């Protein structure tokens, strides 16, 4: 059975009518139309679907919409309107993406780190980014870009 949920995404309220166990990822993509958040594995193993829930990185493929109601959700589209976030600039400068598919998840994971820790060490960066999978193997450039953004 469908129910109505009011969810807050990037500062805007959206009313959606879905089943309560619908993953937030589908609501973001199919109902709200924000396509920057990607579906990779669907079982919380890859990180392509990472968004922020009240500032914390979470995997939206396994978060039911009912658990997201009342929280502030931020997607890659909410980070900046024009790629002006320091991490986005660093990503461009370091030419991080290859195929690009996982990169919004990578950036969302990185943004969450810098919001809590302005000057993470290389070790802290590696630990925090661990588990967001990139099949092209852009990890070295990801770390460089995060370090660049903290300069
Ligand atoms: Fe959500 Fe892989 S799609 S973790």
UniProtKB/TrEMBL annotation:
Pfam families: Fer2 (PF00111), Fer2_2 (PF01799)
PROSITE patterns reported for this sequence: 2FE2S_FER_1, 2FE2S_FER_2
Ranges for domain 2Fe-2S ferredoxin-type: 3-79
Keywords tagged on the record: 2Fe-2S, Iron, Iron-sulfur, Metal-binding, Oxidoreductase
Cell inner membrane in keyword set: no
SUPFAM superfamilies: 2Fe-2S ferredoxin-like, CO dehydrogenase ISP C-domain like
Top-level taxon of origin: Bacteria
InterPro entries reported for this sequence: 2Fe-2S-bd (IPR002888), 2Fe-2S-bd_dom_sf (IPR036884), 2Fe-2S_ferredoxin-like_sf (IPR036010), 2Fe-2S_ferredoxin-type (IPR001041), 2Fe2S_fd_BS (IPR006058), Beta-grasp_dom_sf (IPR012675), Diverse_Oxidoreductases (IPR051452)
Protein name, as recorded: (2Fe-2S)-binding protein
UniProt source species: Splendidivirga corallicola
């Amino acid at each position: 059975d469908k129910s109505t949920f009011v969810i807050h995404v990037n500062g805007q309220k959206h009313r959606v009518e879905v089943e309560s166990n619908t993953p937030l990822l589908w609501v973001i993509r199919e109902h709200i139309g924000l396509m920057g958040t990607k579906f990779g594995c669907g079982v919380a193993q890859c990180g392509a679907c990472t968004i922020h829930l009240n500032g914390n990185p979470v995997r939206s493929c396994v978060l039911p919409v009912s658990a997201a109601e009342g929280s502030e959700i931020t997607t890659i589209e909410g980070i900046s309107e024009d790629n002006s976030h320091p991490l986005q600039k660093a990503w461009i400068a370091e030419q991080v993406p290859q195929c690009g598919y996982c990169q919004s998840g990578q950036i969302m994971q990185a943004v969450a780190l810098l919001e809590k820790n302005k000057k993470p060490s290389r070790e802290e960066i590696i630990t925090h980014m661990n588990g967001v999978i990139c099949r092209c193997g852009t990890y070295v450039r990801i770390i460089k870009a995060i370090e660049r953004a903290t300069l």
